[in-house]
Amino acid sequence: MRVSTVLEVDGIKCLINGSYTYEGTFFEQQLVEGLLFNVRAIQATFDDENYPETELYLTDVGARSFVYPDTLTWDAERNTDEFVAALPSWRAHGILGVTLGFQGGRPALNAWQASPWCHVYQPHQNSGFDSDGALKPAYAARMARAIAALDELGMVAIVSLFYFGQDHWLRDDQAVVRAVDEATQWLLNTGHRNVILEVANEIDGMLYQHPSLKPDRVHELVDRVKNTTLDSRRLLVSASYTSRWIPRDNVTAISDVVIPHGNGYDGDGHRRMIQAIRNSAAFRQRPQPIIINEASTDVSCLDACLASYASWGYYDHGKNDYRDGFQSPPINWTINTPAKRAFFERVREITRGR
User: Fold this and answer.
1) Angle at CA of residue 91, ends 24 and 35, nearest 5°
2) Is-contact 124 184, C-beta < 8 A?
């Protein structure tokens, strides 16, 4: 295994292989150097262990199927292969970060996903962990392919462990801790150094089932990752928050990066959120990169974050139609729609494809 990409942080800036990202780049007099423009590709390793039973449920609620239109079946390996094949084009546009996940995100927009009790109404099972927290080999193998492809291209993998719609597949807190330990050790054992570990997605959403994933205690898991080493090497680590709340000091105080989400915010909302983070006590004590890794398709929000010197992540849910978006299987990972092209071309304009 060849390691090509080494990610580090220096204050509020990111470095790859000892140089600041987009080194020396300005756009309209705004500093770009040190940022990490990224795409949310949380379903790049998606699988549904309840398929094809899930298909029947989706039909009942009027949702679209996960199956590919040309084969009329779901194929997890094809999904990851097509994601990997699309990455060189993403990199050529200046994208440096991609969010992956061991439990993905919501794969369809419909009634059961909109429920506040979405852990009950999610009929699919997309978890890289067994009920006792053991890492599933097939899931880990797809994740390994994705991370290795990013590494080869000089890109960063933001790897999320838990999603509040899927954490209930782990039976208890002991299983959660085992999952954190196994995933952390597995990532270290790969030798890849292009990883930021996101312990959990939107941990302030109040929908996680296990105490260790609640806002008051998730910092214990962040600290657990931070204190796990291999040959004196550890993973960069954090946890993400919804746009409704500023990241809490208990996590920011021990994280390597701050990961807020910008869903529902326009450009002004993004600017206010970024400033509030910078005003927090923990951030003032330990300034670090602000990496928004889920927001929207609105390129004006990207521009607002650039003006506030924060990294922005493209989030395009899509329609389960093998065309639109990057989150609703089956996914077309190419830059094939007006929304995708607007984002990727804007990043290329800002970064000059560096």
Assistant:
1) 40
2) no
Query: 12 forms bridges with which residues in the sheet?
Result: none
Instruction: Quickly list DSSP for 227-290.
Output: T--BTTB--EEE-EE-TTSPPPHHHHTT-SSBEE--TT--HHHHHHHHHHHHHSHHHHHS---B
Q: Quick check: 120 pLDDT over 60?
A: no
The yes-or-no verdict on residue 116 having pLDDT over 80 is no
Domains and CATH numbers, the chain: 7-351 (3.20.20.80)
**Placement of tokens 């003032």 in the chain:** 284
Helix (H) or strand (E) holding 329: none
pTM above 0.85, yes or no: yes
- Alpha carbons within 13 angstroms on the beta-carbon side of residue 13 total 14
How many Cα atoms are found within 13 Å in the side-chain-facing hemisphere of 149? 22
Which region, left, alpha or beta, applies to residue 236 given φ > 0 means left and ψ of -120 to 50 means alpha? Answer: beta
Q: How far apart are the first and last CA of the chain?
A: 25
Task: Report helix, strand or coil for 331.
Answer: coil
| pLDDT tens sequence across 183-229 | 999 999 999 999 999 999 999 877 899 999 999 999 999 999 999 99
Q: How far apart are CA 3 and CA 350, in angstroms?
A: 28
Q: Transcribe 89-103 into DSSP letters.
A: HHHHTT--EEEEESS
**Angle ∠(121,125,127) on CA atoms, nearest 5:** 125
